[in-house]
Amino acid sequence: MLSPRDASATYNPSLTTQKYNCKYRLHNLSNLYLMATQLTSTRQRLIYAALQLFSTQGITETTTRQIAELAQVNEVTLFRHFGNKQGLLLAAISESAVFKDFGESLREKASQSSSLYQALKDYASDRLQALEQVPELVLSVVGEARNYSIEHRQVIGEYLTQANQYVAEYIATVMEREQVQANLPATQLASLLNSLVLGYAAIQFTTGFQSLWQSRDEFLESLVELFLNQVDSGNNVDKIVDLPANLVHTILQKAKKNGLRDYALMYVLFGAGLSTLEIANLEKVHQIIDRDRYLLQITQGNVRQVPINQWILGKRYGSSTRNPLTQWLKSRKDDRAALFLNDVEKPISEIEIQQRWQITTEELLTPEGQAPKIEQAQQTWRTEMLMRGISLEDLSLLTGQNLRHLKPYAQRVKEKVAIEQAIHRDRESQ
To answer: Which of the 8 DSSP states describes residue 238?
Structure first.
């Protein structure tokens, strides 16, 4: 394996010499043949050959014919397995050490991490170690980005998006368990984290530059500190600001005019009190429906079942079998598993849910004179549940939050009850 310094000194195509290319192509070729004797799968040989050539001469300069020859198969065989070079590139990236079993690995780590600090540091450290195993491939992907075709970029972008979602789930799971809230959505935190890790690796592989940090561990400490500044302890939950009934009904009516998808989204936000991450990960199979109830199985963070209210702040929005969500699902003609889709019929993301909220609530103001925030939908649902008589302990079961985190809601309910009592006493005086 090449060291980062070796990789950086040799990768830049404009500076790479013919002597170097010959030396390392022969080196990699011998390694390939050595390993090929142990591989029985044609697919494995093609992927390994692609990784070798992508790393030594770049992605754009590598042809399918070269890959097929190195793997000792016919070029037609490559097309049969992967369709084209883009398909092979995606397979090579996804089955490399950096991404192999990525999602499952993160799910296991999420359950093992003792704290958010340790979870972030372990993830960043593991990713750097994985990137260091394939420095030449990293440099090829990053260094040749301008030369890629649209198809190349789409292939890489799609997989990086999937990988980023795994990281977002990982961060959200740990944050849920540790009872902390972030100032940014989990998807944005994941994007920032991955960008910083990849940026650090690219700088190291390209230049060996280390003057900003004396060691990798110092970089990791700085990275974790940055991210911890973006979260707040559950002990310091902001003041609960639930939305008034008339504003909630206005939001739901505006969403209805926007279409069945937006209407269903707002219905789930106000009727089940779910987070954007939880909604983004819902699938059709997560529904539990019968004549008397409509439940959603939550698989993110604390696994639980949550009922969707038929009544929201005094107004009924259908029944357990016929409501905005069931109408949205009935209108769909696709076979996608996701409960919510975006405009191009792909699973909706956290950011896209927030965008639909912003569009729906445009020009609306809270009694405080501010634009409604999507987090207030969840706050409104939790407050309403307590106002209906649900105990704090039961709300803890429905939300997956501990009692300490929910105490501000109990205080908000006391305030609302006090207001209602004051109004009632005033009426009695008339």
So the answer is: P
**What domains sit in the chain, N to C, each tagged with a CATH number?**
4-233 (1.10.357.10), 245-428 (1.10.443.10)
- Bigger pLDDT: 131 vs 141: 131
In 311-410, the DSSP E strands lie at 311-312, 315-316
Judged on CB neighbours under 10 Å (0-12, 13-18, 19+), 195 is exposed
Coil, strand or helix: which one is 182?
Answer: strand
Beta bridge partners of 109: none
Pick the closest to residue 111 from 169, 63, 151, 54 (CA basis).
169
Q: In the prediction, which pLDDT does 96 show?
A: 61
Interior angle at CA 279, CA 414 and CA 409, nearest 5: 10
Question: Residue 291: how many CB atoms within 10 A of its CB?
Answer: 7
Nearest to 121, CA basis, from 30, 31, 197, 7: 197
Output phi, psi for 395, to 5 deg: -60, -35
- List the end-to-end C-alpha distance of the chain, in Å, as a whole number: 87
Task: Tell me the pLDDT band of 231, cut-offs 50, 70 and 90.
Answer: low
| Cβ 360 vs Cβ 266: under 8 Å | yes
Name the token pair of 150: 């649209």
- pLDDT (tens digit per residue) in 304-351: 999 999 999 999 998 988 999 999 999 999 999 999 999 999 999 999
Task: Supply 267's token pair.
Answer: 């219905």
